[in-house]
Amino acid sequence: MTQSVLELSSVDRHYVQGPNTLTILKGADFALRSGEIVALVAPSGTGKSTLLHVAGLLEYPDSGDVILNGQSCASLSDDRRTAIRRKEIGFVYQFHHLLPEFTALENVMMPQLIAGLGVAEARERASQLLAYMKIGPRAEHRPSELSGGEQQRVAIARAVANAPLVLLADEPTGNLDPATAGYVFEALEALVRHSGLAALIATHNEELASRMDRRITLVEGRVVELPR
Ligand code: ADP
Q: Does residue 52's CB lie within 6 angstroms of at least one atom of ligand 1?
């Protein structure tokens, strides 16, 4: 069996609001293997974003552990977690968060330049990724000149620019019409299959979820596998 790249082990996460404690994750266990795409499908407010934030080292679990590529991350310092997150995890959100004053190509080059890659190398990889996402011809355009589907494809290319192990996506097609959502998902799938990345994608889109390798949901704070 392929090794897990990301594991949540007995994760608890709660939020304290005045006198109330809101328990979101309680004993959540989950494993994501290299090369697979998993759908996270659950009603709003059940904790999908929380799970993605904990898995992506943006939030600490209150107890339990997040193991990334064999490394336990729960008790690492903030700085160490940030360094690991930058290298190993790509995020995509419902809204693209691209930098408006830069072209699509430059947006995908940016994380690579920050990571210390040379301009020529970053440009080459960014071009390849945009071609993979089937928006090569739009590379020199700024986000405002791109359609919603094109913007999301650039955001996905940017998320994987530094070749992370894991892609975490929070409703990446939530803002798109069904046909565009399908097209964006196809491009994402091709990229994951090509790169051997692992992806966990929160979505309300049942049709897309059914096209992924597995579907999971959240029930009373625990991760439950849905039948095929
Ligand atoms: P989903 O992504 O499934 O819609 P979330 O993970 O965003 O759910 O939120 C789960 C619950 O936790 C919601 O009731 C939300 O209001 C609450 N919540 C999320 N983040 C915080 C926070 N930082 N402080 C307090 N409550 C929060």
A: no
